[in-house]
Design goal:
The protein is of the alpha+beta class. It has one domain (2-112). Helix content is 28%, strand content 26%. It has four helices and eight strands, in the order E-E-H-E-E-E-E-E-H-H-E-H. The protein has a four-stranded mixed sheet. Strands 5-8 form a two-stranded antiparallel ribbon. Strands 6-7 form a two-stranded antiparallel sheet. A hairpin with a 4-residue loop joins strand 3 (36-40) and strand 4 (45-49). The longest helix is centred in the first third of the chain and has 13 residues, at 15-27.
Amino acid sequence: MVFLNGAIIGITIDPQRIVSTIRAVRRNGIISEFVSVSTSAQQRSVYIASDGGRLCRPYIIVKRRKPAVTQYHIDELKKGHRLFEDFVDEGLIEYLDVNEMNDASIAVYENQIKDDTTHL
């Protein structure tokens, strides 16, 4: 089943494809950066949340054991050539709510990044 803000809106046989697609369009700025998507493996369900009032925190995206934000990006930010919002707009940072954090593998420090790490 697929839920949007708690209401059933459809069914799927491929929950992971829906999740991957929504995350891709969010990272490309097609939908709001505050739209959350998570799964329940037991129930084979997808939960999409776009309602207000959810606590969302920014996390650096990690791909292939490398943080998307590099020292170059940090230097640009320090010089005033970039804003924090630029990192979100460029798909380097994304906001996760508590439900999506349960699907993520988050490293606190860069030296803790492993093969399955998704965020820093």
